[in-house]
Design the sequence.
């Protein structure tokens, strides 16, 4: 399963196209899945192993078949992160979806045809253990209710990115936030 890598400036237009095609009725949600520790891991194992990791993660996402009265209607990659467009806005459902997806992604085994070994590497003046077959993720989720249409896709992307960054230190490494347009009640 090959997912095209989109430059950041192409994400919003591509998501807007997906929104027009799928007409979410209740809300629009973006899940930003960010790989933990990718920089030191990539420094040790390189491009080929990174691509195997991303393909394994996308395979896990495709196999997850998460159905909480919604569907994946868009999947994009931008360097190490993934964005999923999901069409439900219930925070309870979004938390459950993100939790299930994180558990499955964290358990994903990355193919290792080159027999690479776990190592300890120095990254930013600290020792970091890396394993060529394991990576973990954190997830930021931003949603906007349909009552606040038109959807602010650019604002949702930014909220999801910030939520993923905040998830670094959040319990369970998942953050769900609502995006409201300026002046909305």
Sequence:
């Amino acid at each position: 399963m090959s997912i095209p890598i989109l430059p950041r400036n192409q994400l919003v237009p591509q998501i807007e196209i997906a929104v027009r095609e799928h007409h979410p009725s209740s809300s629009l949600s973006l899940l930003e899945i960010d790989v933990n520790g990718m920089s030191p891991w990539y420094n040790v194992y390189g491009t080929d192993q990174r691509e195997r990791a991303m393909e394994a993660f996308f395979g896990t996402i495709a196999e997850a078949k998460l159905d909480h009265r919604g569907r994946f209607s868009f999947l994009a990659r931008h360097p190490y992160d993934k964005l999923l467009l999901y069409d439900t806005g219930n925070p309870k459902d979004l938390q459950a979806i993100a939790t299930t997806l994180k558990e499955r992604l964290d358990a994903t085994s990355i193919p290792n045809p080159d027999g690479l070994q776990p190592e300890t590497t120095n990254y930013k003046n600290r020792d970091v253990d890396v394993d060529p077959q394991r990576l973990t993720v954190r997830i930021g989720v931003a949603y906007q209710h349909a009552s606040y249409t038109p959807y602010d896709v650019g604002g949702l992307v930014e909220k999801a990115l910030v939520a993923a960054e905040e998830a670094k230190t959040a319990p369970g490494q998942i953050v769900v936030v609502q995006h409201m347009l300026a002046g909305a009640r």
Summary: Residues 65 and 71 are 9 Å apart (CA to CA). The chain has four helices and seven strands. The chain has a mean pLDDT of 85.
